[in-house]
Design a protein that fits this description.
Layout: H1 3-33, H2 69-75, E1 86-88, E2 93-97, E3 102-110, H3 112-115, H4 142-145, E4 150-154, H5 165-170, E5 177-181, H6 182-186, H7 189-199, E6 206-214, E7 218-219, E8 225-226, E9 231-232, E10 237-238, E11 242-250, E12 256-264, H8 281-288, E13 301-304, E14 307-308
């Protein structure tokens, strides 16, 4: 791409982003001034894109084969079906799966300070609550979990966020939860994995962890392979078959090591070593449809799952 084309591309990209953001602001202002509109509590998102305003049609003699803000506004006059998936909370970021009413992924940055015991933070004062920043059609509610047989399982663990009471409280939004088997998993083996991650802050200056659900295929008696999972409550909250954690530890000299785990959402014996659940990170990426830590070249990692790369 020559300099002239590159300059044009950057200018167009900047204009498109500006149109997205301006359109989002304008339509929210219009909605707030209208009648019979349910107001949602906003959560900052990355990226903050949504609907754009309508625009004047492009004259026939000014045909432009580039996706201009004007053309995008025409196509999307009545709004994007989705884009508002990523939400940033006080101490973690997540991507919300509106269809399954659980996160796609939750991302945390841990340090020895953030996980240290803090008497000013009281977990018992935290209440599980619906996330009102989510449209009512797509929210999970406490009633969905009631008498379901499943725990409201934290993806960003409350124990990881002890610096401030607000940090801990935010982990109790149901947008940060997924149904987990309680005894034998959430309260036991999964908790051991969470505790292990916190202990990594004693080894690394910075620990980055991405956590989320998986829905893995299984061969049935008819010989075919299916992806099957239970749903609970009136909102059909999905029960994942498995959960993953992908972790990157950064040492004081900026060396990077990665670990990746997949655990089945079922009772697991307490004497099962965590290393049994280690998998190549690529297998999680393929199963989840996600790329983890894609700004890190694999050659920068000195170890993956404890083995030198």
């Amino acid at each position: 791409m020559n300099n002239r084309l590159l300059t044009k591309f950057i200018a167009i990209s900047t204009t498109v982003s500006g149109a997205f953001l301006l359109g989002r602001y304008t339509e929210r202002q219009q909605s707030n001034n209208g009648n019979n509109v349910q107001k949602l509590t906003p959560k900052p998102g990355l990226p903050i894109f949504a609907t754009v305003s309508a625009a004047v049609p492009v004259p026939a003699d000014e045909v432009n084969l580039t996706a201009t803000p004007t053309r995008i506004s025409q196509i999307m006059k009545f709004g994007f079906p989705s884009l508002d998936h990523v939400r940033s909370y006080s101490d973690f970021v997540l991507s919300y799966d509106r269809k399954n009413r659980v996160p796609h992924w939750v991302f945390e940055h841990l340090t020895a300070e953030s996980v240290a015991k803090n008497d000013a933070v009281d977990r018992s004062k935290c209440d599980f609550r619906a996330d009102e920043s989510i449209h009512p059609f797509f929210r999970a509610e406490n009633t969905d979990y009631r008498r379901s047989g499943f725990d409201r399982g934290h993806m960003a663990a409350a124990g990881n966020h002890r610096r401030h009471q607000k940090h801990c409280e935010d982990t109790f939004y149901l947008s940060n939860m997924a149904p987990q088997v309680g005894q034998g998993f959430n309260r036991d083996s999964w908790n051991r994995l969470e505790s292990y991650v916190r202990k990594l802050t004693k080894t690394y200056s910075n620990v980055y962890v991405c956590t989320g659900p998986l829905y893995l295929p299984r061969k049935e008696d008819d010989g075919n392979v299916y992806i099957k999972y239970q749903v609970i409550g009136n909102n059909n909250v999905a029960v994942p078959t498995h959960f993953y954690k992908v972790i990157v530890g950064e040492s004081a000299d900026q060396k990077l090591e990665m670990e990746a785990y997949v655990m089945p959402n079922k009772v697991i014996s307490d004497d099962t070593p965590l290393q049994v659940f280690q998998v190549p990170p690529e297998t999680i990426e393929r199963a989840a449809g996600l790329l983890f830590f894609d700004k890190i070249n694999r050659k920068q990692l000195t170890k993956i799952n404890g083995k030198k790369t």
